[in-house]
Every structure is written in C-alpha cells, then in structure tokens.
Amino acid sequence: MQQALNQLKPLLHPGDLVLRNGTDATSQATRKFNRRDTSFSHCGIIDVEKDTVWVYHAIGGSYNPSQALKKEPLDSFSKPGETDRIAIYRYRLTREEQQRLMAIVQEHYKNKLPFDLFFNFDTNDRMYCSEFVFKSVNKSMNGRLSPVIRKQTPPVYIAIDDLFLNEWTSLVQKINYNVLQ
User: Fold this and answer.
1) 155 cis-preceded (ω within 30 degrees of 0)
2) What is Dmax (Cα atoms) for the chain?
3) Once rounded to an integer, what is the mean pLDDT over residues 24-28?
C-alpha cells in the first residue's frame, strides 16, 4: 500500500482534490450524505512542498481536538487500516486559478478556520470538509462551480461526491487498499 502511495505522489499537483473512505462508524454515516457515489467519506486539498505531499482538510471531533483546519502529510491522511481507499481528482484550473486556490487555502490555514459542527453552508466563518473544498475551489474559479449549488433545494449542502462528479474534474488515480492486500 505504501508503494502505491509513493507511486502516486509524483503525479500530484497543488490544488488536487483528495478523497478518502474511512473505516469507522462516523465515515459510514458520512457517506450516506453523498447523492450518487457513496465511495468516500472525507476530502481535502493537496499541496506539494519540496518532497512532501500535504493535505489541507476540515475535520472536527476527536479526530482534531483543535477543530482548526488541519494540514497533514498524505501518508497519515490516507493511513491504511483507518482508510480503505483514496482517490485524486484534478480541477481544470488555469495556472493563475491554481495559485489563487492555494493562496485561499493557506489563508484559511493561517487563520485557523474552525470546523463547522452544524454543517451550515450559509456561513463562511467555519466550514465542514466538502464545504471548505467547494468554497475554496469555487472562489479560485470565479464561481464556475456555482451551478452545483443552484441545482439544490434548501437546505443547501455540498456532498463529497458533488466535488468530483462534475464537468470541472478529471480522475488522476484511485487506490483501493483492499485490492492491494
């Protein structure tokens, strides 16, 4: 499994969407909020700094006692045993949009964006995982992802599958740990 992750890392770009499926009860419940594809329970945004692939992600509860936007290495984000699959999708971003996205993400991290325990899409002072990804990417793309929201009836929320089942993403790679064992 580590070999598969190591082979994936050179393919990654800052701004890529990373998805994982956790193996715990919280992840099982979270997947039910997806609209079409229930394969994944959590998401984040990739950054690459020198030789390290990082994941920025909004997570709360006992997983992240500080409740602040988390930055952790891809290896720990996608830890086998706690995760049984990951996928990387790439948004069609211009170079300028990619740079803007990473500036937005790093600003949220610097400001310690709190996790939104109430999953309220209408606020921007705290965000849940897919909301953080969606709002960051959408802002960098000057609103091109907004049709995802317009198709919804209240209450509006961004499901994890909304992030990758749209015209603006393409699959980079999926890794299913169960197949590798």
Assistant:
1) yes
2) 44
3) 93
